[in-house]
């Protein structure tokens, strides 16, 4: 049994400090805002982080403002954070925020149910100072759904989101000790504390961004009996961009990793833009994607193709495992019961190497892949001398196509496409039949062939 300890959850809400006690730390932020704080502007539409009606803004001490889904965020995750809701945009005298005025003047409110979420997304967009170009606007709005189907006035409003000043919000003072809320939600502040908790409570779920585990509390209403929240551990928040390697801690969010990954591997710009939404990328972590070990996770094929390695740590010590050997079965990894993922490392591209990736899904935005492919190719003197081809959605685990790699090096792309049937025997499910998946994977290799033949002619990543 878990020991009974108690502490209040402390965070900043709309610029004011709040202490929350007497509630399960696995209560969703959305439920607390509406049912316990009476802030009804934040809505529940889907309860799984897809529709954006629950969008609030995470205001970081460094001045960053990031939209996030409150429906899948647990109260325990909010400790030490600063959150702003739609009610927090109004001035002290009730004066609407400039973002709210622009929405009203652009006739972008429509039925009103989803409008608070759109406004909070626009607030984060304006705070980021991005140019109001259509590409960035559509990326910002990908996590918000309008059931009135009237996106044009919303996009028009977003075009006017410039020059709106925002103040960085200071989070509550740092804790002097690592809290444990209700004896079921642990929030270690050091790696030593984390591995000690992991050894003591191996049955507790490891929680980083919560974009998957949060569904247990929101949609399923069956939160885990115990969780260890890893996001406050400094060693899991390391980002190092060296001359030869990139290293990211397991708790680094997609939003934080984005600029470094895209600079090193430009093909990831379009790919990552289709990985969830900005709200999801604010919370989600690549370390969580690895630990979840889903065969249709978007990042494992990328890390496999890039020859990534994952650092695992426990009280017994540390070890490094190539991604090739990390996934051992359906949603099973090489992690021992007392281990945690500390970080992962990717080598930069060397001379003659290129990297490409594709995602095929039923919808372009906010959808899980049916097939994902990633490819690292080395060409010397006009000939492919090395290839790493990895796919998701094709097997029980994310996996390299070793037969296709060998065939490509020996006999070319036609042979590689034919060899895919030796590498994969996909399952039939509602996302696609086995025959469809094999055909798609072969077509993606054809697309790669065209990219390499005409490198100056971009081949866009599309949802099929």
Describe the structure concisely for a colleague.
This protein has 464 residues and is an alpha+beta fold. The protein has helices spanning 29-36, 98-105, 115-128, 134-141, 151-158, 191-200, 214-217, 254-264, 268-273, 278-283, 286-292, 299-305, 402-411, 413-423, 434-453, and strands at 9-13, 16-20, 55-59, 65-69, 82-84, 180-181, 185-186, 205-207, 227-229, 239-241, 245-249, 309-314, 317-322, 327-329, 332-333, 340-347, 353-360, 371-380, 383-392, 399-400.
Q: What keyword list fits this structure?
A:
15 helices; disordered N terminus; Uridine Diphospho-n-acetylenolpyruvylglucosamine Reductase, domain 3; alpha+beta; 5-stranded antiparallel sheet; 464 residues; 5-stranded mixed sheet; Ubiquitin-like (UB roll)
Task: Describe the overall structure.
By secondary structure, the protein is α+β, with helices and mostly antiparallel strands. The chain folds into two domains: 9-158, Ubiquitin-like (UB roll), CATH 3.10.20.30; 237-453, Uridine Diphospho-n-acetylenolpyruvylglucosamine Reductase, domain 3. The chain has helices spanning 29-36, 98-105, 115-128, 134-141, 151-158, 191-200, 214-217, 254-264, 268-273, 278-283, 286-292, 299-305, 402-411, 413-423, 434-453; strands at residues 9-13, 16-20, 55-59, 65-69, 82-84, 180-181, 185-186, 205-207, 227-229, 239-241, 245-249, 309-314, 317-322, 327-329, 332-333, 340-347, 353-360, 371-380, 383-392, 399-400. Helix 2 (98-105) crosses helix 5, helix 13 (402-411) runs antiparallel to helix 14 (413-423) and helix 14 packs antiparallel against helix 15. It starts with 8 loop residues before the first strand and ends in an 11-residue tail after the last helix.
